[in-house]
Amino acid sequence: MKKMTKHFHLLIAMILFTGFASMAQTPVVQVSEKSTKLKTYVIERDIPGAGQFTPEKLKAISQTSCTVLKEMGPKIQWMHSYVTADKIFCVYKAENIELVKEHAKRGGFPANAIYEVSTVISPATAN
């Protein structure tokens, strides 16, 4: 279990270093007249065989997600996802974690773990 946790933390670190590098200098997205700031979340989805999904199946999953997001409005946004052998790690921006959970429920997606990103670092952080 410790080895698995170590590998998971390494994967999250890789996601943060590679996937968010361009975000290091980007301000938080703002929506509505109230200037509500969206938080960034990483969602871990256990989906056996995800790495073997066909492009058509990944397209269908993406379309389902986008349809639900459109219904939910601008307070939640899907940024991108990383597909691994048996998991998909999704990066979302949302006002709160409840919206992330609601999206998973409406879309029929697992959300085995949801992590709020507190800070983004990248190679630019070293300068």
Ordered list of secondary-structure elements with their pairings:
Layout: H1 2-19, E1 30-31, E2 36-37, E3 39-46, H2 55-72, E4 76-83, E5 87-94, H3 97-107, E6 113-116
Antiparallel strand pairs: 1-2, 3-5, 3-6, 4-5
Helix pairs in contact: 2-3
Essential attributes:
3 helices; 37% helix; four-stranded antiparallel sheet; 6 strands; 127 residues; alpha+beta; two-stranded antiparallel sheet; Alpha-Beta Plaits
Short description:
This protein has helices spanning 2-19, 55-72, 97-107, and strands spanning 30-31, 36-37, 39-46, 76-83, 87-94, 113-116. With 127 residues, the chain is an alpha+beta fold. The radius of gyration is 15 Å and the shape is globular.
Please give a structural write-up:
- With 127 residues, the chain is an alpha+beta fold.
- It has a single domain, classed as Alpha-Beta Plaits, CATH 3.30.70.3090.
- It has 3 helices and 6 strands; from the N terminus they run H-E-E-E-H-E-E-H-E.
- It has helices at residues 2-19, 55-72, 97-107; strands at 30-31, 36-37, 39-46, 76-83, 87-94, 113-116.
- The strands form 2 sheets. A 4-stranded antiparallel sheet has the order 4-5-3-6. A two-stranded antiparallel sheet has the order 1-2.
- Strand 4 and strand 5 (87-94) form a beta hairpin.
- It is globular and about 40 Å long.
- The chain starts with a helix and ends in an 11-residue tail after the last strand.
